[in-house]
Amino acid sequence: MQLNVTGAGFLTTIQDFGRVGFRQFGVSSGGALDRHALRIANLLAGNEENTAGLEITHGNVRVRFNDERIICWCGGDYDVQIGTRLIPAGHSTLVSASDDLSISGPRHGCRGWLAISGGINVATVLDSRSTDLRGNFGGLDGRALRDGDIVPLSKNSERANVWIDNLRTERIAQWSAPQTWSQTATVNPVLRVVRGADWNRFDDVTIRRFTSEAFAVSTDSDRMGVRFDGPELHRNDDIDLVSEAVAPGTIQIPPSGRPILLLGDCQTIGGYPKIAHVITVDLSIAAQLRAGGHVRFSEVLIANAHRLLLERESELERFRVGLSLRDS
Amino acid sequence: MEIIPLGDSALILRVGDQLDDAAEETLNEILEVRDRLEEAHIPGVIELAPAYITVAIFFDPLSVINDGAEPDRVIELLIQKIRESLPPGERKRRKKAATRTVEIPVCYDPEFALDLEHVARHAHISPGELVDLHSTADYRVHCLGFTPGFPYLAGLPKKLATPRRATPRKEVPGGSVAIGGAQAGIYPLRSPGGWNVIGRTPLRLFDPEKDPPAVLRAGDRVRFRAITRDEFEALKQCN
Question: How far A58 CA lies from chain B's nearest CA (Å)?
Fold first, then answer.
């Protein structure tokens, strides 16, 4: 009922869907930077969608279990192996006690999510098991995992137990999630955005640059946000704005002109102009941006953002139904 | 009153453009809007977050659609429901009892007050006068943000307004009581920060194990009480 961390990698944290209702106290929503990837991985590990799993940044992680588990991972272009056998993304896989699970550095993208049947059983803090690295709470002692950590697991669900029996010979299930859900890293992606409150503070030329040029991802990026080295965008006025709410997906333009795309651990309020917001369905791609990569932004209407979300949800519903047919 | 989208899953309701001299009135209006929206239980709305002149309204677009909204009209429908739950001219008067006053003990010992002399010099007063001014003023919490539990306080005596440090400190100790421009604040947790630190409170202003996790809430009145180093150590023991 535990997971032994033999190699913690660059930054591995325990995450579920994060926190709702605590922004008024300055607490970020946090959680898996790609919730959709975590929910797919969880479904394929026989878990509830919001179960706590591991968020892995830049890989080089090794873990070992002390009992049988179904696992599934989704995210960047990683090599995930049990011993020498490769486990493709989005496939339910049986791991046995003392199996070594290793996750290499990614060829593309930067993050991956590993769901384990039963889920990670650390205490809930403010209604979530997610690690808040700024507030140092949640997860395991409010910090990233270290070599030698022992992470408690809950017992397997009934569904997972059925799958464990069914997978004894083949180990890796034939069925899988759609590749666009399980492998989310793309080279030089386009992120769709809706207009922000301060869109009109930028002149037409600047807006054209924003929606046509490629922005270079800076090394100075983390779970709070992705910074870009350029091109720089400057607004027409220099009115001091009153700080107000920001959210994951918000693109701020600080005085340097270099955009910052906020992610899950961002502050709850900010005072920089908000030029645009990445739409919810594209946060999966935003979570994979890494230094050296480039990204473009393309404007859509909010109605489109909602329709895309609804389409994905309908597909997901069909996927859930399909999955329930595998139980017998 | 203006309501604009903050991405595809939140709206921002603004009661003004600038934080003017009527900050107190604006704050009361914001708190009232928040309370009314809380009571309205609009389907799909999951979280409200006040800040200065705005209330952010977070929603789950799929819940709004499940509740009957056409996928193309989620924003329209929500704005309509928000406006309906805030009828003009029908403002209830907030009861005085609803505003709490929280006393925050502060030790202005030189070991804690990293920038006290700098702020005093900037204000052309002695460190003692600074402590008097700071600890006799009435403050109000406008919002919490920056880090969990960090209160942005209005009510700093104008004389004490001091620009933020040109280079932020990489690490400000937890409990640091500080001045940033015309605002006062308290760093509940050890964090980076650019405000001028003039003292430290032994109180633990943010504790994720508690419900609510923060001692202060938007709207609270705050008074600082000067304490000695001994009192600081004694209070620290009980926290």
Answer: 25
What span, in angstroms and rounded, lies between the C-alpha atoms of A295 and A259? 12
Boundaries of every domain in chain A: 2-184, 190-308
Q: What distance in Å separates the CA atoms of residue B178 and residue B201, rounded to the nearest whole number? A: 11
pLDDT recorded at residue B239: 73
Write down the ipTM of this complex: 0.96
- Domains of chain B, first to last: 2-84 (3.30.1360.40), 99-238 (2.40.100.10)
Burial A304-323 (b: 16+ CB within 10 A, else e): bbbbbbbebeeebeebeeeb
- Number of residues written out for chain A: 328
pLDDT of residue B97: 47
Q: What is the pLDDT of residues A159-188, one digit of tens each?
A: 999 999 999 999 999 989 999 999 999 899
What CATH architecture is A190-308?
Answer: Beta Barrel (2.40)
Cβ-in-10-Å burial (0-12, 13-18, 19+) of A85 comes to exposed
Q: Residues B101-141: pLDDT tens digits? A: 999 999 999 999 999 999 999 999 999 999 999 999 999 99
Nearest-CA neighbor of B18 among B43, B53, B42, B45? B53
B143: closest CA of chain A, how far (Å): 7
Q: So what's the pLDDT on residue B108?
A: 97
Mean pLDDT of chain A: 95
Q: From A131, which residue of chain B is nearest by alpha-carbon distance?
A: B208
> For A150-285, where are the E strands, in sequence order?
150-152, 190-195, 215-217, 225-230, 244-245, 250-252, 260-262, 269-270, 274-278
Task: Read off φ and ψ for residue A19, nearest 5 degrees.
Answer: -115, 140
- pTM for the full predicted model: 0.94
Average pLDDT over residues A196-224: 96
What residues in A contact B212, CB-CB < 8 Å? 25
Rounded Cα–Cα distance for residues B30 and B92 (Å): 13
The CA distance from A323 to the nearest CA of chain B, in Å, is 22
Cα–Cα distances (Å) from A15 to A119, A128, A145, A310, B194, in that order, read 10, 8, 12, 24, 30
Cβ contact (<8 Å) for B8 and A247?
no
Residue of A222, A242, A310 to mutate when probing chain B, most B C-beta within 10 A: A242
